[in-house]
Write a structure and sequence with these properties.
heterodimer, A: 326 residues, mainly alpha, 13 helices, 2 strands, B: 375 residues, alpha+beta, 2 domains, three-stranded antiparallel beta sheet, 16 helices, 8 strands, 48% helix
Chain lengths: 326, 375
């Protein structure tokens, strides 16, 4: 069983790339706007407020208005910045997101690009975003931004390792790096049943990787004002914002693919199941954000190096032994 | 100062200065902290104040005692009721004016409601500093009810001017009394909810336990008062030590803790809210009928020549008024001894050695109100 890709549809690889980029942009935009709306509604619900109600039914159009506002804002370039890095940063942050998104198998018959080493590519590209964040922090030439950037780098390094180790446990079981095949093999039994520890570690690390509260120390508005994006305005800030929510989609999609059996589920069509699971995970992430205070920087790092990483390694070891025996 | 002005030499190129504030989300107004940092570790810190100085003390020298009446509640806008009634009590004591029973009880109720609302706002902003947004909105929900109640009797929501020399401007309505009783019942339940949401939270505990420990000798050096002092294990409270008004008629505990870290200061304030409710409930039960203003109020408010000192327990600690009178209607000098000023002064000693993220939690935990520091 192989999925259909853009190459099959268009025949021409250049056309396929163009089409895929457009479709992915649209896919990400719609989802990100939905998630921003959802975040505001969930937050409002948890805080006994109403959230957006004015624009569209249930305020559904609020995010679009916000986007319009951000586009309309003046793009201020402070005089003291390192211009090259400063201007490149929002692009650098957002570019990997596009590549990442194209690798996720959405349903049984649909994946943007079907690669045999999709998981490796995904993990590699997700590490790229930190370069953008660092260049934003360094290029802004602002002490708060720099501290945010430094925090971001050490956080990404610290949490990439348990993230990869927990994904590796799934790879060991599936004996496969192709995401499509990993999902296909989960029919009937999702990986979360066999790998609960890895799933929890993955979710925690993914929250940290996407800089979401309670791990949002690179931005930490009560300490660092805005962290790495302090000096950005208008749509440049919008791109950081957009990238954060897109990263959330990707992290949750990957968690769905690796642990929750992707499109598998009874009755409903596969693509619907996929989105139900992704949005359920996104809801969990929002739940974290609006319930917990922020972790302190040093505790965040020691939590990764002293708790998550050893557990992930132990889990990997057990997985290796068990899969050898079975 | 000398070590702060020194420009970084070649040897310490890995240290830098950071101006935290006066525009910063967590400096609670316009405090500026000049931090010398090595990475995220603080080497030295100096609070720089004066950005919201409004010369309240100087204003007092240019107007008579009655005209100064609206000022005290602007000094500390979070416990305005306590300040403004405290000022009335100071003048009443200076000119020897008796206040009717009913007014005294209402004063106590309003003071304690104000204390709860101040602590609630502190609780919300403290959690906001730590990155937890949700409790902030819960607190404001409860605080709103108190503001509505106080609005009902005093006509204002933040900077009250409810007290008069010799009593109060309005009598309370039944709505107020019923509302207060209802609030007390509902708020007990809410406090338990906060406890489940915040006190038991492992991240919150990790960020506050053992952070920002104030050594007991600091209390004497700087004159720390209020919840910060009680978190050191010293049960000092003006309401108990030198009872003013009718505070000696109520039963309440002075909650203390011993570790003197951010977590203890948090617990002390939470316990104080409960004690304040106890006082409110006792006062509601005993509230007598009668007038709310003294019969004979002198036309001319002019304390006899001399010096007067009067202190009340505000939500932040010992608020003292030192009044020098030359026998005229205009005070010669009013000095306001405000608690946050003393509490903030400890930051130079407490902050070095902590992390930048701790700065925020320590500053939050001492509960500063900048206009009260600058006056």
């Amino acid at each position: 069983m192989t999925p259909r890709t853009f190459n099959d549809i268009f025949g021409n690889p250049y056309l396929a790339v163009l089409a895929a980029t457009t479709v992915i942009m649209g896919y990400l935009t719609v989802n990100a706007l939905m998630i921003i709306w959802m975040e505001r509604k969930v937050a409002a619900r948890m805080q006994r407020r109403l959230g957006p109600t004015e624009r569209g039914k249930f305020g559904l159009l609020q995010s679009i208005y916000d986007m319009g506002k951000l586009i309309g804002k003046e793009l201020i370039t402070p005089t003291h910045v390192n211009k090259g890095l400063y201007l490149a940063a929002p692009v650098l942050v957002f570019a990997p997101v596009l590549a990442l998104c194209s690798l996720i198998p959405v349903s049984q018959s649909w994946v943007f690009h079907d690669y045999d080493i999709a998981l490796v590519l995904l993990l590699a590209f997700s590490g790229l975003a930190v370069i953008g964040i660092f260049s934003a922090g360094w290029g802004s030439n602002n002490k708060y931004s720099l501290m945010g950037a430094v925090r971001s780098v050490s956080q990404t390094i610290a949490y990439e390792i348990p993230l990869i180790l927990s994904a590796l446990a799934v790879v060991m079981m599936a004996k496969e790096l192709n995401l499509y095949q990993i999902v296909a093999k989960q029919e009937g039994l999702w990986n979360i049943v066999l790998q609960p520890v890895a799933a929890v570690i993955f979710l925690i690390s993914a929250t940290a990787e996407t800089n979401r509260a309670p791990f949002d120390i690179p931005e930490a508005e009560s300490e660092l004002i805005g962290g790495f994006h302090t000096e950005y305005s208008g749509m440049r800030f919008g791109l950081f914002f957009f990238a954060e929510y897109s990263n959330m989609i990707i992290a949750c999609s990957l968690a769905t693919v690796l642990f929750l059996g992707g499109w598998h589920g009874p009755l409903l069509p596969g693509i619907l199941w996929f989105f139900i699971k992704v949005y359920a995970l996104i809801f969990v992430m929002m739940w974290f954000r609006w319930t917990f205070p922020r972790i302190r920087f040093d505790q965040l790092l020691s939590f990764s190096w002293l708790v998550l990483t050893p557990i992930a390694i132990a889990n990997l070891f057990v997985t290796a032994v068990v899969s050898k025996l079975v | 100062m000398a070590e702060l002005i020194q420009i970084a030499s070649d040897e310490d190129r890995d240290t830098f200065y950071l101006n935290m504030g006066p525009q910063h989300p967590s400096t609670h107004g316009v405090l500026r902290l000049r931090l010398h940092l090595k990475g995220e570790r603080i080497l030295s810190a100096e609070p720089i104040i004066g950005y919201s100085h409004r010369a309240h003390e100087k204003m007092a020298e240019n107007r008579n005692y009655i005209q100064f009446l609206p000022n005290p509640s602007r000094v500390d806008y979070l416990s305005g009721m306590i300040y403004s009634i405290g000022y009335c009590q100071a003048i009443e004591k200076a000119i020897g004016l008796e206040v009717p029973e009913r007014a005294e009880y209402i004063r106590v109720i309003c003071n304690e409601l104000n204390r709860i609302s101040s602590h609630l706002l502190w609780f919300g902003t403290f959690l906001l500093d730590l990155g937890g947004v949700t409790p902030f909105l819960y607190c404001f929900d409860d605080r709103e009810k108190i503001l509505d109640l106080l609005d009902l009797v005093s006509g204002s929501r933040l900077t009250y001017c409810y007290g008069r020399f010799g009593g109060l401007v309005n009598d309370v309505t039944d709505d107020f009394l019923e509302g207060t009783a209802r609030f007390c019942t509902a708020f007990r339940e809410r406090l338990r909810e906060y406890d489940r949401l915040v006190t038991q939270n492992v991240i919150f505990r990790n960020r506050t336990i053992g952070v920002g420990v104030m050594r007991p000798e600091l209390a004497q050096q700087f004159g720390i008062t209020g919840p910060c002092l009680r978190a050191m294990g010293m049960a000092r409270d003006v309401r108990r030590d030198e009872p003013y008004g009718i505070y000696d008629r109520f039963e309440f505990d002075i909650p203390t803790r011993t570790a003197s870290d951010c977590f203890d200061r948090y617990l002390v304030r939470i316990a104080e809210m409960e004690q304040s409710m106890r006082i409110v409930e006792q006062a509601l039960a005993k509230l007598p009928d009668g007038p709310i203003m003294a019969k004979k109020i002198p036309r001319k408010i002019a304390p006899a020549k001399g010096e007067y000192y009067f202190a009340v327990e505000s939500a932040r600690g010992h608020f003292g008024m030192f009044i020098v009178s030359d026998g005229s209607e205009i005070p010669y000098r009013i000095h306001l001894r405000t608690p946050s000023f003393a509490n903030l002064s400890t930051m130079r000693t407490v902050l070095p050695g902590t992390l930048l993220a701790d700065t925020v939690s320590i500053l939050g935990s001492i509960d500063i109100v900048l206009p009260e520091i600058d006056r």
